[in-house]
């Protein structure tokens, strides 16, 4: 199974400051079809997960452009250029290139300082 | 508007059974892969199972042989039959739609239903 490792586990950020979350996979996520199936999800307390990005950097509808997804191979990053209060919660990366199973990172909890 | 509504959760004793349902609306259900994903209290997300539009099925090793996923396209519904339940199956269970090019859990999730395995 592909192991997804996120860092840091906890991320205290000041409002208006930038934030960055790293996600590493135990093997390359380049699929045989040439795509890289790496998704990012955000889960607010008490809510269902919401997908932010698919295929590394394709932004889902309604996701603010202060969010960006990047990376390739085994190293991926989610960046928030200016953190707002509504960004709190847990962020997960998930790979869909080598399945089953689909595997998630352990999560990064973003909180406001 | 796409909607996924789970039901069927509750409290069950170890070794017991439960059947979860997910009612789908707002899209052509028959054409999409559907997934179950769970989240133990205070923990991360764990993929459980998926069923494709052609009813090809996959399971996580942790539930293989105990859980059965199925779908009824006429009723736009997804199911998860859970047998031989264990304490570690306690979680919120979400149904999640796959995408067009990838069947992985994607942009649409239900609100979840809580399963508690306890004596």
If you had to describe this structure to a student in words, what would you say it looks like?
The complex is a heterodimer of chains A (113) and B (119). With 113 residues, chain A is mainly β. In chain A, the strands form two sheets. In chain A, strands 2, 4, 5, 6, 9, 10 and 11 form a seven-stranded mixed beta sheet that branches. Chain A has a four-stranded antiparallel beta sheet with strand order 1-3-8-7, with no helix packed on it. The mean pLDDT of chain A is 97. Helix content of chain A is 0%, strand content 48%. The radius of gyration of chain A is 13 Å and the shape is globular. In chain A, a hairpin with a 6-residue loop joins strand 4 and strand 5 (50-54). Chain A has strands spanning 4-7, 10-13, 19-25, 38-43, 50-54, 58-59, 67-72, 75-80, 89-95, 103-104, 108-112. With 119 residues, chain B is mainly beta. Chain B contains no helices and eleven strands. Chain B has strands spanning 3-7, 10-12, 18-25, 34-39, 45-51, 57-59, 67-72, 77-82, 91-97, 108-109, 113-117. In chain B, the strands form two sheets. In chain B, strands 2, 4, 5, 6, 9, 10 and 11 form a seven-stranded mixed beta sheet that branches. In chain B, a hairpin with a 4-residue loop joins strand 7 and strand 8 (77-82). Chain B starts with a strand and ends with a strand. The model of chain B has no long low-confidence stretch (mean pLDDT 96). The chains are: A mainly beta (113), B mainly beta (119).
């Amino acid at each position: 199974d592909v192991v997804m490792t996120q860092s840091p586990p906890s991320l205290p950020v000041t409002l208006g400051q930038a934030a960055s979350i790293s996600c590493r996979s135990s093997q390359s996520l380049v699929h045989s079809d040439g795509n890289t199936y790496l998704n990012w999800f955000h889960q607010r307390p008490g809510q269902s997960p919401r997908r932010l990005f698919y295929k590394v950097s394709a932004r889902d509808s309604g996701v603010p452009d202060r969010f960006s997804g990047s990376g390739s191979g085994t190293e991926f990053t989610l960046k928030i250029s200016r953190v707002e209060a509504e960004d709190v919660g847990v962020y997960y990366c998930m790979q869909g290139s080598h399945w089953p199973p689909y595997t998630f990172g352990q999560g990064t909890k973003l909180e406001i300082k | 508007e796409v909607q996924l509504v789970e039901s069927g959760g509750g409290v069950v004793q170890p070794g017991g059974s439960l059947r979860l349902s997910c009612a789908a609306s707002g899209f052509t259900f028959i054409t999409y892969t559907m997934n179950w994903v769970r989240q133990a209290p205070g923990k991360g997300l764990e993929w459980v199972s998926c069923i494709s539009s052609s009813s090809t099925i996959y399971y996580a090793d942790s539930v293989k042989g105990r859980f059965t996923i199925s779908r009824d396209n006429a009723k736009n519904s997804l199911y998860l039959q859970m047998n031989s339940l264990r304490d570690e199956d306690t979680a919120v269970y979400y149904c999640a739609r796959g995408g067009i090019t990838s069947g992985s859990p994607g942009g649409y999730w239900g609100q979840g239903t809580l399963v508690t395995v306890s004596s």
